[in-house]
Description:
Blueprint: H1 16-26, H2 42-51, H3 57-73, H4 80-86, H5 92-101, H6 108-120, H7 124-144, H8 148-163, H9 169-179, H10 186-197, H11 201-214, H12 220-223, H13 232-245, H14 251-257, H15 263-276, H16 279-289, H17 294-308
Amino acid sequence: MDTPSFPAEPDYIATPFELCLTELQAGTFRSGQVDELSDLSRVQLRRLGAIWSSIPVDTRTKLLTAIVDAGEASVEVDFRRVLRLALHDPEAELRKIAISGLWEDDSRSCQEELLRLAVEDPSFDVRAIALANMTNFIETAVENEEDADLVEAFESLVVRLAEDDATPVVARTRAIEGLGVIAQSITTRALINVAWEHGDSALEVAALMAIARSHEARWLALVRPQLSSGDSDVRYAALRALAAIGTSDDVEAIARCVVDEDADVRVGAIFALGEIGGPGAVRILRNRHSTAPAEERDAIAAALDTALIGSELAL
């Protein structure tokens, strides 16, 4: 009697995503595999989440760093689900990397996650970067009169952190900067002023950045003298403030900063001239373009474009 024959079953072939998971667990993840984690389905995300804690820490670090780099390099990839998963990583440094990769995610659910971290994360470094990422979202929400509950929660948090001397500087400075995007009041202005008079240069810089974000010209008398500060960070922050609240009266003083010894200050001055605009600013930018270092010429060109918007001046 003949033995019945059956068709051979095809060999199972793992998908690239499955191979990626296997290598992650083995600690042999290669950066070229990162695209396999773009735009994950919910099923794939659950599978990644199930093995996340078993992936070696060094490998998780390489993975998240590669994801952030890939996200900055291309708009064709979407790693938000992986990054949101990593917000729960037990390692603070990895939570920080994940937050940095979510800077463009303005979804309500992401902002709620960032608020949670800003309020309760055991690492103040993580709280600080969560606050920094939230600030742009809150600024837009205030302008559009949206998400009132999130705005209220953010306001309560930054006021509490800004006024508490026990708050570590890394988080307190971010809270002070956040004061600038909420509705300005006697309380917020007083806290900004207290930060300015504190004597800590980091808090002074944070106060100037809050002033920049407040767009309140009432601070001009405080800001203008800081262009002559011996601290380059203070000069830079003052330029950011003048970019927001300065007038044509500030162009001459800002022009002196275009040739500052500090590269960041020079770029800050270029940006401020572009934001203020007017014939004087345009003339200075054009003259500087021919003598500026090559790495500053793109910034000058962008500032000129901004300065010329709505103007009858022509290049």
